[in-house]
Each structure stands twice: as C-alpha cells, then as structure tokens.
Write a structure and sequence with these properties.
alpha+beta
Amino acid sequence: MKELKNSIKTNLEHLSDREKWMLIIMIIAVFMMLIYLVYYFMFFKKIKMAKATLEKYEEAMLDLKIEGETYLINRKSKNKNKFKPAKKEVHLYSLIGSLAKKNNIEIKTINEKPVTQKYKGIVQKDVEVYIQAVSLDILAPFMVSIEKSRKAPMYIKTLKMNRDYNDDTKVSARFIVTTFYKKAENKEKK
C-alpha cells in the first residue's frame, strides 16, 4: 500500500500544472457521472411513474380542453338542456304503467331499484322494466313517450332487446328508466 502511495505521489510530482488540472477535472467528471448513475438507477421507477402520471395529466388536460370547447359551443347555442330534476318525488312505477296502458303494452315485470343520491340535493331513481313479445311498431312509440313525458324528466338508461323465439316479428325488451328529483327538505317545527 505504501509503495502504491509513493508511486502515485511520484507520478503526480512529474506532472505539469496543466496536466494536474486536467486530472482534477477528469476525476470530478467521473465522480459526477457516478453520482448521476446511482441517482438514475435508484429513482428509475419513480421517474417512470412520474412520467406516466404526467402523460395522464396531459391527456386529461387535452380532454378538458376539447370538452371545454364543446361546452362553450353548446352554451352559446340556443338549444339549452331541458332535462331538469322534478321538484317533488317521481313515482316511476305508476307513471310508466299509465304510459304503457296508453300505448297498449303489457308490462311483464317492473322492479324499482334502490334510490341513490347522485348530487347534493338531487335524488336518482331507477326502475327496471321487462316487456315480453311486443312488436317494434308498438314498443318504439312507448319508449319515445317515456323520454318525452312532461309529467317527469325520464330517460332510458340501458336497453337490451332479443327476438322472440316463437314469433320473429316480436321482441322482448329489458330496460332501465331513470329519473331525477329534488330531495325533500325536512322541516322540523320548534
């Protein structure tokens, strides 16, 4: 070990000032490169995750920009969204039943889903309707009457239709009708 120190010391003494400065700069560069490599490999996963997150944010910002432009265009247009929540609770079971009666449709089953509160003060109510063996000529006006009902804001959320096995001219339909209404405020008397 002493011999190695002495040989390094002797070699350094024989170097010119310019060579000494070049050696110092090279040692600093190698040291910095080692620090960079250690940092890179230690934090490689974190850097990769940060880049993926940044890409997601960029995509979200792009989507937001597109949606924002669409919103501004729609806001300026005269066609306003007329779907507003009803002021009081909507009884979908009886309302759909009366619309079915008007359209000469027999509902096989109608099931109310649990009520959910979508937004503050707004309640969403769903019913699943099943109609069996009905002609499309009769079903279509019934579904249109649901969507265009003036008694309550309703729309068909999902729809699944199958051809009837016994009669090719008829279908069976299962769909969910959704409505929104304002949550009733509890007024306590003091």
